[in-house]
């Protein structure tokens, strides 16, 4: 056992994930390759570098989810390690940016606790990250042509497939990674399919804590292997309505607070370190497993075992996921529920195994998500920005509920993107969805963001309305009415309700009757408090076409494998 007190140099690794590298091009294969290389470097190669040091001189706290926390006894070793990590990232990716920060432990009289040190290290790393100037790659010489994928780096190689492509080294490496390691291309007749590599192969290249390893393990446990999409259109084609994709961006809630609480709860140095380690690992495992379960249970995997979903990034407390448009909300909700459930159960497991002294969060950790439903050809990096904005709005609600009501729950916000707006979503909500009466009463034309429980209610309401076969046009006539001045909105909405009564629609549909009478007593609104009225009708209409009849998926459902039929291109497991 190392004497932790003599390990005074913390190395904080933070991958600078997104735009410049992961989404350098809009092509799925390259985004996927980028994500895989980041995982490979973070989970595997960084560990291999570490193993070149004397095991008595360092201690690995955590590596994963694009981050790393490693303790060193001597500053020169930390420095040496840092340089090797930076060099490896440059060699293997050319353009990915990683920040490696050496943070000595504060040594004043009442020095910092272990979790405080970790938090202080992460803060310092983030500050320096912000301060760094963004390197702009210079294309040397006019005769060099830029890469047709990312447009940033000089092209090195020309490929001929559906026209001419000139690729830079970074983009070539991304493509090579997936074609050599992720799947096997199979031709059946004229169709090409991409069979996910077996879990055993993925483990040896990427470790067992890699999202595609988790995916392969889940399906192999159930006796089959799956085929992957090759571009975002493949996902859009599985959507009803056709050609829509849902982009989900989720992130753990109040992680800083949890780490801070660890410091207060575990005053013993060794226990605090153990708890910090357990916290990091549990979060990472829960993210991967919850994401895979949510996709396999919600997304329709037909007999051909094709899974129309892309795990763009899954690790640490981060998830980026693309699924068919009509599956997006069900997947997001199920993911959030499973994440919380798993973080709770994993704590028990860790305690039983002696890897955690006592629970750090009795109710489990929660996560918040932003969901954008848009045409499949919409650039994914833009979808990520929008989903990120929505996720932040959702997170403020989760934080408020945790502080004021001691309620630990996942929350989500969402939009159906029909037209691109340049205005931030926060402003749009204020301008388009908020009205004020002279009396000071605030009228909100939306109830977003939702808790997971309320999101279930929303989807159930839409599903009930759909199954009661009320003509869609009758419901949709309410939508424009809501955006008028509040008085006019009430007047016109009541007129529509009256018409629904006269035509017998309310009698025919219990769910519609309930919605327009008891649920919304000051139709089309309900009172949230004395100063604010709200309505969920706008999101019911906006989502209406994207929610298919059936049951909500919940944590109670059990996973059913697609039929294992024999076919000519069946591949033995
Ligand atoms: Zn490129």
Task: Summarize the structure in short.
The chain has helices at about 20, 30-50, 75-95, 115-130, 170-180, 200-205, 210-220, 230-235, 255-265, 270-300, 330-350, 380-405, 425-435, 450-465, 470-475, 480, 485-500, 505-510, 510-520, 535-545, and strands at about 10-15, 60-65, 65-70, 95-105, 155-160, 165-170, 185-190, 190-195, 225-230, 245-250, 310-315, 320-325, 365-375, 410-415, 435, 440-445, 450, 525-530, 530-535.
Description:
This protein is α+β, with helices and mostly antiparallel strands. It folds into three domains: 166 residues, Alpha-Beta Plaits, CATH 3.30.70; 192 residues, Reverse transcriptase/Diguanylate cyclase domain (Alpha-Beta Plaits, 2-Layer Sandwich), CATH 3.30.70; 122 residues, no CATH class. It has 20 helices and 19 strands. The strands form five sheets. A six-stranded mixed sheet has the order 11-12-10-13-14-17. A four-stranded antiparallel sheet has the order 2-3-1-4, sandwiched between helices. Helix 6 runs antiparallel to helix 7, helix 7 packs across helix 10 and helix 11 runs antiparallel to helix 14. The chain is globular, with a radius of gyration of 26 Å. The C terminus is likely disordered. The structure holds zinc ion (ZN). The site of zinc ion has 8 residues, from strand 6 and helix 5.
């Amino acid at each position: 056992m190392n004497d932790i007190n003599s390990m005074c140099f913390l190395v904080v690794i933070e991958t600078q994930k997104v735009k410049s590298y992961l989404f350098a091009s809009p092509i799925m294969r390259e985004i996927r390759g980028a994500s895989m290389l980041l995982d490979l470097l973070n989970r595997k190669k960084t560990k291999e570098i570490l193993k070149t040091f004397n095991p008595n001189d360092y201690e690995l706290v955590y590596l994963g989810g694009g981050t790393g926390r490693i303790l060193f006894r001597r500053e020169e070793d930390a420095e040496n390690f840092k340089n090797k990590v930076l060099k490896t990232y440059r060699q293997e990716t050319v353009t990915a940016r990683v920040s490696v920060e050496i943070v000595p432990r504060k040594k004043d009289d009442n020095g910092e606790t272990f979790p405080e040190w970790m938090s202080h290290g992460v803060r310092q790393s983030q500050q320096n990250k912000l301060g760094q100037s963004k390197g702009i790659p210079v294309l040397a010489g006019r005769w060099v042509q830029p890469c047709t994928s990312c447009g940033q780096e000089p092209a090195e190689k020309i490929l001929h497939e559906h026209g001419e492509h000139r690729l830079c080294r970074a983009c070539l490496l991304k493509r090579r990674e997936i074609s050599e390691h992720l799947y096997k291309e199979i031709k059946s007749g004229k169709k090409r399919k991409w069979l996910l590599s077996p879990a055993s192969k993925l483990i040896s290249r990427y470790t067992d804590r890699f999202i595609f390893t988790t995916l392969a393990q889940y399906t192999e446990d159930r006796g089959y292997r799956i085929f992957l999409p090759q571009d975002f259109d493949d996902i859009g084609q599985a959507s009803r309505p056709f050609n829509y994709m849902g982009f989900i961006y989720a992130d753990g809630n109040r992680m800083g607070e949890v780490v801070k609480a660890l410091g207060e709860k575990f005053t013993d140095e060794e226990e605090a370190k153990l708890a910090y380690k357990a916290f990091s690992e549990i979060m990472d495992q829960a993210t991967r497993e919850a994401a895979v379960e949510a996709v396999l249970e919600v997304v329709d995997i037909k007999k051909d075992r094709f899974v129309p979903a892309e795990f763009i990034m899954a690790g640490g407390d981060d998830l980026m996921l693309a699924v068919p448009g009509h599956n997006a909300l069900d997947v997001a909700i199920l993911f959030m529920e499973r994440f919380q459930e798993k973080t709770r159960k994993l704590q028990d497991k860790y305690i039983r195994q002696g890897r955690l002294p006592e629970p750090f969060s009795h109710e489990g950790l929660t996560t918040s998500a932003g969901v954008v439903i848009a045409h499949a050809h919409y650039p994914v990096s833009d979808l990520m920005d929008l989903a990120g904005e929505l996720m932040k709005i959702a997170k403020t609600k989760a934080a408020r509920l945790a502080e004021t009501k001691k309620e630990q729950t996942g929350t989500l916000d969402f939009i159906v993107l029909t037209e691109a707006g340049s205005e931030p979503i926060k402003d749009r909500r204020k301008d388009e969805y908020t009205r004020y009466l002279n009396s000071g009463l605030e009228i909100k034309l939306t109830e977003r963001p939702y808790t997971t429980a309320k999101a279930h209610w929303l989807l159930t309401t839409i599903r009930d309305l759909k199954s009661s076969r009320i003509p869609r046009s009758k419901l949709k006539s309410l939508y424009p009415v809501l955006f008028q001045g509040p008085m006019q909105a009430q007047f016109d909405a009541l007129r529509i309700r009256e018409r629904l009564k006269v035509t017998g629609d309310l009698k025919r549909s219990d769910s519609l009757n309930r919605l327009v009478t008891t649920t919304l007593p000051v139709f089309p609104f309900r009172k949230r408090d004395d100063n604010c009225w709200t309505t969920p009708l706008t999101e019911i209409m906006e989502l209406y076409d994207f929610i298919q009849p059936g049951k909500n998926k919940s944590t109670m459902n059990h996973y059913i494998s697609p039929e294992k039929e024999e076919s000519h291109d069946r591949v033995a497991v």
